[in-house]
UniProtKB/TrEMBL annotation:
Needed cofactors: Mg(2+)
Top-level EC class: transferase
Family to which the UniProt record says this protein belongs: Belongs to the ATP phosphoribosyltransferase family. Long subfamily.
ATP phosphoribosyltransferase catalytic domain: residues covered: 105-281
Catalytic activity from the UniProt record: 1-(5-phospho-beta-D-ribosyl)-ATP + diphosphate = 5-phospho-alpha-D-ribose 1-diphosphate + ATP
CDD domains per UniProt: PBP2_HisGL3
Protein name as catalogued: ATP phosphoribosyltransferase
Species this protein is from: Canna indica (Indian-shot)
Length: 398
C-alpha cells in the first residue's frame, strides 16, 4: 500500500497549464450570458495553480444527509452560506471574506483537501478515516459537531451458520473460513475494514467493494457479512442482520477537517480556521444550556452568594453573578434585593428552579443561551501544538 509520503509525491506530478482562474482541478465554467463555454480541467492534484491560490476554500457536502445539517450548523454560528441557486456548487459566507465555499460529495471533499484543491471541510469522521487512509496532512480541527452520529460496524445474518455467532471472536473461529473460502465482507470501507480485521487477527478474509444498500447482499448469497454505517439499527433489523460484540470499527459524527499544509502555508487559512472554530465552540457549548435570572432578598451580595452556593445545582459555569437591584425609598436608592444570574444545563433546569425557590428566589426568568465564548478555545491550543506553532499564537481581527 502507498504510504502518505509516496501518495503526496504521486499527487504532485501534474502542474496545470490553464491558470487564468483559481479553480478546482476538475470543473466546468459557464459564461454568465448563458452561452456556456466549457472548460474541463484535468483531475490533477496539488498543482502550482492550487499553490498560487489566494482565497481559502471550504468544502461542504453537496447532497445527502449531511448537507442540510451542515448549513444549519453554520447558520447557527452566524456563518450563513450564500448560494445563489441550489445547483451552483460555489458559494460564499459574507462574514468570512477571502473564503470560498465549494459543494462536493463527502468523499471528494476529503480527496480534494489532500490534493490541495480545498483547505477545509465538514464531513463525517468515517469518510476522513476511510478516504484519508492515515494521511498526516489531514487534521481534525473539531471532532464533535453534534450531527451525523453513526458507527461503522460489522453485521452478520441472524440465521443459518451465524445463528449462534454473537462476537467477533466467534466469527473469527468459525471453521468455515479457509484460504479457498474466505469470509466475504461487503463494504464501502475497505481501507478501514482491512486494517481492522488484520489487527483482530483474522486470517481468511476477502473484501468486496460496493456502495449503498449493502444490507441486501447476505440474503442474496453474495456475501457472508457486511461492514457499514449504523445509527438507529433499523436497516439491519429489517434485513435480518445483527451487529456483534467487538464489531464496532469506528464511532463517527460530523467533523471539521483541515489540511496541515494549508494551515501552515496558505495565507488566511489559520485565521479563518480560528474564527470558524471559535464560533463553532461557542455555539455548541451553548446547546442545552439556559440562563436563569432570579431576584433574592438579602443584606449583601456575599450573603446571597453563600445561600446560592449552598445548593448543588446553582453554581453555574463559573459561579453565580450577583448584582444589587436598586429601588427608590424616601428619595434614596436602596438595595433590598439582589439579582442572580446562572447558566444551567437543560436537564437540571427544574431542579435548579426548585433550589432557587427554596433559598428565597422569586421572579425566576429562564431564557435560551445562544453562544458561550470562553476565554480559551481548547481545540485551538491543540491545533497549534499539532502544527508546531507557539501556544500564544493569537488571531486578532485585522
Ligand atoms: N444512518 C446514518 N445515520 C447518521 N449518519 C449517517 C448515516 N449514514 C451515514 N451517515 C453519515 O453521513 C455521511 C454522509 O452519508 P450519505 O449517505 O449522505 O452520503 P454517502 O453515502 O457518502 O454518499 P452517496 O451515498 O451519495 O455516495 C456519512 O459519511 C456518515 O458520516
Ligand atoms: O441504522 P440506520 O438508521 O438504519 O441507518 C443505516 C443506514 O444508513 C446508511 O445508508 P443511507 O441511508 O445513507 O443509504 P445509502 O446506503 O444509499 O448511502 C447506511 O449505509 C445504512 O444503510
Ligand atoms: Mg449513505
Amino acid at each position: 500500500m502507498m504510504t502518505s509520503l509516496e501518495l503526496s509525491s504521486f499527487l504532485q506530478v501534474r502542474p496545470s497549464s490553464a491558470r487564468a482562474f483559481s479553480r478546482p482541478s476538475s470543473c466546468i465554467i459557464c459564461c454568465s450570458n448563458g452561452n456556456s463555454s466549457m472548460v474541463v480541467l484535468p483531475n490533477s492534484v496539488t498543482s502550482s495553480e492550487s499553490q498560487d491560490r489566494k482565497v481559502v476554500r471550504l468544502g461542504l457536502p453537496s447532497k445527502g444527509r449531511m448537507a442540510d445539517e451542515t448549513l444549519n450548523l453554520l447558520k447557527n454560528c452566524q456563518l450563513s452560506v450564500r448560494q445563489l441557486n441550489p445547483r451552483q456548487y460555489v458559494a460564499d459566507i459574507p462574514q468570512l471574506s477571502d473564503l470560498e465555499v465549494w459543494f462536493q460529495r463527502p468523499k471528494d471533499i476529503v480527496r480534494k483537501i489532500q490534493s490541495g484543491d480545498l483547505d477545509l471541510g465538514i464531513v463525517g469522521f468515517d469518510i476522513v478515516c476511510e478516504c484519508g487512509e492515515g494521511n498526516e496532512d489531514l487534521i481534525v480541527v473539531h471532532e464533535a459537531l453534534g450531527f451525523g452520529a453513526c458507527r461503522l460496524s460489522v453485521a452478520i445474518p441472524k440465521y443459518g451458520i451465524f445463528e449462534n455467532i454473537n462476537s467477533l471472536d466467534e466469527l473469527s473461529n468459525m471453521p468455515q473460513w479457509s484460504k479457498d473460502r474466505p469470509l466475504r465482507i461487503e463494504t464501502g470501507f475497505s481501507y478501514l475494514g482491512d486494517k481492522f480485521f488484520r489487527e483482530k487477527g483474522f486470517k481468511h478474509v476477502r473484501f468486496q467493494r460496493s456502495e449503498g444498500a449493502l444490507e441486501a447482499y447476505p440474503a442474496m448469497g453474495t456475501t457472508d457479512a457486511i461492514l457499514d454505517l449504523v445509527s438507529s439499527g433499523t436497516t439491519l433489523r429489517e434485513n435480518n442482520l445483527k451487529e456483534i460484540e467487538g464489531g464496532v470499527v469506528l464511532q463517527s459524527q460530523a467533523v471539521l477537517v483541515a489540511s496541515r499544509r494549508s494551515l501552515n502555508t496558505r495565507k488566511g487559512t489559520l485565521k479563518i480556521t480560528h474564527e470558524i472554530l471559535e464560533r463553532l465552540e461557542a455555539h455548541l457549548r451553548a446547546i442545552g444550556v439556559f440562563t436563569v435570572v432570579a431576584n433574592m432578598r438579602g443584606n449583601s451580595a456575599e450573603e446571597v452568594a453563600e445561600r446560592v452556593l449552598s445548593q448543588p445545582s446553582l453554581s453555574g459555569l463559573q459561579g453565580p453573578t450577583i448584582s444589587p437591584v436598586y429601588c427608590k425609598r424616601d428619595g434614596k436608592a436602596v438595595v433590598d434585593f439582589f439579582a442572580i444570574v446562572i447558566c444551567v444545563p437543560q436537564k437540571q433546569l427544574y431542579k435548579s428552579v426548585q433550589q432557587l425557590r427554596a433559598i428565597g428566589g422569586s421572579g425566576v426568568l429562564v431564557s435560551d443561551l445562544t453562544y458561550i465564548f470562553e476565554e480559551e478555545t481548547p481545540r485551538w491550543s491543540k491545533l497549534l501544538s499539532q502544527l508546531g506553532l507557539p501556544l500564544d499564537t493569537k488571531m486578532f481581527p485585522a
